[in-house]
Amino acid sequence: MAQSNVPVSAAADESLSEEFAVPSHVEEVKKQMAEFAEHHAAANRRVVLITSGGTKVPLESRTVRFLDNFSSGRRGASSAEYFLDSGYAVIFLHRHRSLYPYTRLYTGVNLLDSLKFESGEEEPCRVLVDQKELPNILKVLKRYQAVKEAGLLLPVEFNTLSEYLHLLKAAAQALSSIGSKAMFYLAAAVSDFYIPASEMPEHKIQSSNGPLQITMKMVPKMLRPLVKDWAPQAFVISFKLETDPSILLERARRALDTYSHQAVVANVLDTRRGYVVIVTKNSQHELILTDEEVQKEVEIEDKIVSKLSVAHTQFMSQ
Ligand code: PAZ
After folding, report:
1. Could you give all domains of the chain from N- to C-terminal order, each with its CATH number?
2. Which of 40, 105, 164, 168 is most exposed, with minimal Cβ within 10 Å?
3. Among 41, 70, 45, 38, which residue's Cα sits nearest to residue 55?
4. Pocket of ligand 1 (CB under 6 A)
């Protein structure tokens, strides 16, 4: 619980360790992330940590029900591809089963409909791909394999809110040694509310007890200790989603004033695939997909990433 004489960033950090169970693999993953970052920074490459997907918040310890959100992880997964194309190495901190770079292009395709086998006597027979069912598969596969062979993509999965929070902290600490070469691109939609383990019923909530009333606590804001303590030299981008466009920019500005990071990518739920505003302390820049670009299947993440990677270069030279 925050006390008035405790710095707010320390209070957020403290409530993280007190109220959210530390995942057993966090130290091992932190080591992997630190080695990945140092290896790529030594090769003069920038490293971006992308967070992606939503979070699930359980209502019972033996969880039957949970509070979820809409995020598909498409923003994070497609941005990862554009960062890789721009020469970054990418740590992809994503929710289990949310969209993944490259494979996201074939979501909704039934794999078995795109494969057939060569009939003949020989065993094992060859399996062939119908390239009409998997458009651009050769190009995408080549790119995916090149990224993998060069070790440019480090995927890290989270399942629970606790895992997300601890892994984000570990990532921030792991990337601190590469200073301003690190970018944080926090596109995940993280719950603002949770029920502490000590206040959660163990068993399934019974409907026979009548209508459900729950009180949830605020999830600690990780952005403050991230910017102030864990990775103070990094280039940090947060995202702000609203459903009411009239409050979007004011909320984005408020986040910048509160956390003093470098930029907020502001978007509205219904228009997020074609319109965002990049808000910095002294500027705001709209990115829009034109009808022609939509026809050509241009993605807004291409524009977001190219704008931010230029801003990152300027930031590093300051
Ligand atoms: O994951 P997705 O592509 O469906 O949606 C992306 C997004 C809206 C989750 C992202 O752009 C975003 O705004 N993330 C931050 C949400 C927030 O906490 O305000």
Report:
1. 8-105+152-233 (3.40.50.10300), 242-318 (no CATH)
2. 105
3. 70
4. 71-75, 187, 189-190, 239-241, 267, 272
